[in-house]
Design goal:
The chain is of the alpha/beta class. It has 33 helices and 14 strands.
Length: 794
């Protein structure tokens, strides 16, 4: 059997948290957290001493700007957002400075106020007390938020004290600004004049040197770039020189080829030599010779001849050109395909036809002779042209080299001048930077722009407040409600994460990857015994035998039906039942299922494969006898180890003799052979295996059976044992076919939702079952065969 559930998907499903389901299940935590938050907010509101807030607004204005504009900043920068922010930041720092606060405390005897005495009793100084309760903010409110206004506030348990303290702080700040305004202006003017005397002279000299340099340099300098005409000319000359060199090399190579040809082969008048001569010429060279021939022919022929036979002369010239092209074509085809190729032969025939046509249509006037160049003479003429071209190119090369060297020297001189100009420009920049740094230091001293020459006017006086600024009930209530709800949600999530039990039937199915086919409730065996057959040796816990019409037995029948449907689809003949831990009721569950299967008429064999803690023989009242261990040790056969039971069609194979090596016996091939042999004699074989977490026996048996059923007790097994058990099966590629939840009591129904599940899935458990059970008691039916008949009639 192979698991159909991917292990990674299984692990991911465990990590998912359904927040809505968690809050619905653990709503008590959310309610508790919310109520706690609201309660703490209310407690804080009624126990906190109220604080009253007094506010003032200060308009910060500049009395004179001529001084600051004279040497520190330009007129364009004398006002603006950046300057306003610097000014306001400086004044905010002045108001909260410890120096001015100490003067306010001393001048106005603030230490005698009640709040200051309480702070002193706690070890807090008067200045620290003011700092903790004093707030200073920039800008106004609404559309005037960018105004040159400072807002200051102070909180105190006494409204009158708050107004008095804030007034004292403002007065200390105002006196400081006014007393330092004049001295600061004079000091700023002196420093500014000194800066001008030193740095403006340096700037002027550096600027003059740079301007003189720019006038003396022939090149055009644009900032950090220079327009060097000599360098551009040198680049163009290099390009032209490379072109001349390439052309010269080509002409020399052509001349060398022709000279080599002459050195190897002596010229003759044969047609073959003529063709070889012409083959040395390219199409471009032929065109050039044709032009040369035309010019030469035009000088030797008379006007009378041209006037007398213009048409035939033109035709002869065209035919001659055609002959040259055919000869070149023949040579190219010969080089490409060989001398014997059909295309070469066709070209030869075409040449012969052209020659015959030229001879037949030659000009009739023999008195006049036309000057023609044969191939050898053409080649000599072309050689002469090549020599003239080479001489001209050599001359051009020499001139270009001379011009390039001249421009190179001039470009180097421009580069040296540019480097000298760069040094002068750097000197000018350094002088400018030093000047700017001095101005920046003047600004940082706050002598010219921070508070010197500023006025401080009150727009709103500090007045005693009529209502407490803090605490405010709506704010505390909203904050407590929000934080309490968040605390409740966090507590619910933490509780859900720490909860190692199963939350619902769906939770079990998600973890195991199998469907729950039955929820077996906890029942009292003594009560079932009293309503069943007292004389039988079968254990009262086998409710399917003692009380087949009971609600518990009906649950086993529902599980049996689910397994029968599944078995039909998968052709299952052997099923193993195991559990995560001991005490999960697997032996009782598989025994009840075996009885339910036997009631359908199937021939069922129940094998007790728990060789360590066997229970099947005790449940069915079988005393000793050979069993599974005897077969595995090859001491007994199948028929010798199978025992009849009081339930028709149900046969039991107990554990057999005691053994000290149960795992080794189960690993033998005899167990697989036994199951195969048993399938020939029985319709269904059920195997009771040990718990998965206790021993390795179930992992040995599971691969050789058709189906594995897992039973677990919800009020005993947490999530981790079940996950570990599923991991053991997954390691051997086994997926449980079904789950039976055992021992469900009222508390489990409440915790895991089994009560609702039972009512919805087994609707006949209730009033219908009470009537059904009463008829059985009244009839006094005790024969199991009669019970089978009644069951089938349903």
């Amino acid at each position: 059997m192979t698991s159909n559930t991917d292990e990674n998907d299984y692990d991911d499903s465990k990590l998912q948290i359904n927040l809505f389901a968690t809050l619905r299940k653990r709503w008590e935590y959310v309610v508790f957290g919310t109520m706690l938050g609201v309660g703490l907010a209310a407690l804080y509101f009624y126990t906190t001493v109220p604080l009253y807030q007094s506010d003032i607004e200060i308009l910060v204005g500049q009395r004179s700007s001529e001084l600051t504009n004279a040497g520190t900043i330009s007129g364009a920068n004398a006002s603006g957002d950046a300057i306003q922010e610097d000014q306001l930041a400086t004044h905010m720092r002045l108001i909260t400075s410890r120096l001015l606060l100490a003067e306010a405390v001393k001048t106005n005897k603030l230490a005698d106020f009640a709040s200051f005495k309480k702070a002193a009793a706690k070890g807090v100084s008067a200045i620290d007390h003011i700092v903790e309760n004093l707030g200073v903010y920039r800008g106004g409110e609404g559309t005037s938020r960018d105004a040159m206004v400072l807002r200051a506030s102070f909180r105190d348990p006494s409204a009158d004290d708050a107004a008095a303290i804030l007034t004292a702080v403002f007065e200390s700040y105002r006196r400081y600004v006014e007393s330092h305004g004049e001295d600061s202006s004079q000091q700023a003017a002196k420093l500014i004049e000194e800066a001008r005397a030193t740095h403006e002279t340096e700037l002027s000299l550096a600027d003059e040197d740079y301007r003189t340099f720019l006038q003396s340099v022939p090149a055009l300098i644009d900032g950090d770039k220079v327009q060097d005409i000599h360098k551009e000319r040198m680049t163009k000359l290099e390009i032209e020189l490379n072109l001349v060199r390439n052309t010269l090399a080509e002409q020399k190579s052509r001349l060398e080829v022709i000279n080599n040809f002459y050195s190897i082969q002596k010229p003759s008048e044969s047609e073959k030599d003529k063709i070889n001569f012409l083959a040395l010429l390219s199409q471009k060279e032929v065109e050039r010779l044709k032009l040369f021939l035309e010019m030469t022919s035009g000088e030797t022929q008379s006007e009378a001849f041209q006037a007398e036979q213009p048409i035939r002369a033109e035709a002869a010239r065209v035919n001659y050109n055609r002959l040259l092209e055919l000869i070149q074509k023949q040579q190219a085809l010969k080089d490409a395909f060989g001398a014997s190729h059909p295309l070469v032969d066709a070209a030869k025939q075409e040449i012969e036809i052209t020659k015959q046509f030229m001879e037949k249509n030659a000009p009739a006037t023999a008195a006049l002779s036309v000057r023609k160049l044969d191939p050898s003479e053409m080649l000599k003429t072309y050689t002469l042209l090549l020599r003239n071209d080479i001489a001209e190119l050599e001359k051009r090369k020499t001139i270009l080299l001379t011009d390039s060297e001249t421009e190179h020297v001039a470009a180097k001189e421009v580069e040296v001048d540019f480097m000298r100009g760069t040094a002068l420009r750097a000197k000018l920049n350094r002088a400018q930077a030093r000047y700017d740094q001095v101005i920046l230091r003047l600004q940082e001293l706050n002598l010219s722009r921070s508070y010197a020459g500023f006025s401080t006017d009150l727009l709103a006086n500090s007045e005693p407040a009529t209502r407490a600024a803090w605490p405010k009930l709506p704010i505390l209530a909203g904050l407590g409600l929000f934080l309490g709800f968040g605390l409740g949600v966090a507590m619910a999530i933490v509780a859900d994460l720490l909860d190692k039990t199963f939350n619902s039937a769906e939770d079990i199915e998600n973890v195991t990857g199998a469907t729950i086919i039955a929820h077996v409730p906890r029942f009292v065996p003594k009560k079932i015994r009293s309503n069943g057959q007292p004389e039988t040796k079968i254990s009262p816990s086998l409710v399917s035998f003692h009380s087949p019409r009971s609600a518990e037995a009906e649950i086993y029948r529902v599980a049996r039906t689910s397994l029968l449907i599944s078995n039909r689809r998968g052709a299952v003949r052997t099923m193993m039942m195991t559990s995560p831990q001991p005490g999960d009721g697997k032996s009782t569950t598989i025994s009840n299922l075996a009885i339910s299967f036997a009631r359908t008429g199937k021939k069922v064999l129940l094998i007790d494969a728990d060789l360590r803690r066997p229970m099947i023989a005790k449940l069915f009242g079988i005393e000793g006898g050979p069993g599974l261990a005897d077969i595995l040790e090859n001491n007994k056969g199948l028929s010798e180890c199978v025992h009849n039971t009081e339930m028709p069609n149900l046969f039991v194979m107990p554990h057999g003799k005691s053994t000290s090596e149960p795992a080794e016996l189960l690993e033998s091939l005899r167990l697989s052979t036994l199951l195969t042999e048993a399938q020939g004699a029985y319709d269904l074989i059920l195997v009771d295996a040990p718990p998965l977490l206790a021993v390795a026996d179930p992992a040995i048996i599971a691969p050789i059976v058709d189906s594995v059923i897992l039973t677990l007790r919800v009020n005993k097994n947490g999530r981790r044992p079940v996950e570990h058990a599923i991991k053991i099966l997954s390691d051997i590629e086994i997926q449980p076919a079904a789950i039976v939840v055992n021992g469900v009591d009222k508390s489990a129904q409440k915790s895991y939702g089994y009560g609702t599940y039972s009512r919805n899935q087994y609707g006949y458990i209730g009033k219908y079952h009470s009537t059904y059970s009463a008829q059985e008691t009244k009839a006094g039916v005790t024969d199991p065969n009669v019970l089978i008949g009644n069951s089938s009639m349903r």
